[in-house]
Fold this protein.
Amino acid sequence: MLRGVRGLVACPFCRELFPVGERKHCPFCEVDLVRSSRLPPADPALSDDESAPPPPGPDERRLPWWSPAHGRGPLALVALAGLVAFGLPWVRLDAPERAVFTGVEVAQRTGLAWAAAVAWFTLLPLVLSRRSARAMRGVRLIAAVLAAIPALIAGSLLLNPPAAAQVRGVVVPLRFTWGVGLDATLALGLIAAALAALAFGRVPPLPPEGSRQRPPRRRSSPS
């Protein structure tokens, strides 16, 4: 059997087999025939064997962990930027004293702001661990909720600013301005929520069915 295969030549395109010396060119593809042993393994997508498992679809193909495809890269970058914004100034206090508080320091005083950091820390590995479009779509709702948490916390602080604080038993008015870190957290949270809901796990539309089909091959058996 092996000796018979070695005595055949094949078309490198359509893989039709012919006895050695019968032809030099493929009658269908008009390309030079080569030894069948020199052909690379056949592509399962082009195989006529119906028992072979079908190739993975566009939404099932496993991506490298660094791949930005299907909205994965932009969402991961926004989550990373959200972690950076948590370490930037959130509040610039002018009275009763001058001080600058980062998101970490605000969280140490209020507690609630920690939820923003936890959301970013959870969202980043969640996005990077999803390696196919189908897996991404399976956690799209969770990703959108996690992305919205920092925006909700930032929005709550902006809409309900503290007016006074108690210092040594005395209530004193506060004068402060919001820092760039808080504004960035609000913007990044809204962007991340939109990316998670609209782009995360989305597969580009396939070309028309007719353009993806190969013309039927003519079959011939070696004589």
Remarks:
- The two ends are 16 Å apart (CA to CA).
- Helices lie at 2-6, 72-86, 103-110, 114-129, 133-138, 140-159, 180-198, 209-212.
